[in-house]
Amino acid sequence: MDLQTKLQEDMKAALKAGQKDRLTVIRMLLSDVKNIDLMPNKPTAQQAVEAYGKKLRKSMEEYHRIGRADEVRKLQEELAVVDEYLPKKASPEETQRLVEQFLASNSFTEKDLGRAMGAFMKAHGQTIDAAIANAELKQRLQGK
Question: What is the reported pTM?
Answer without folding.
Answer: 0.69
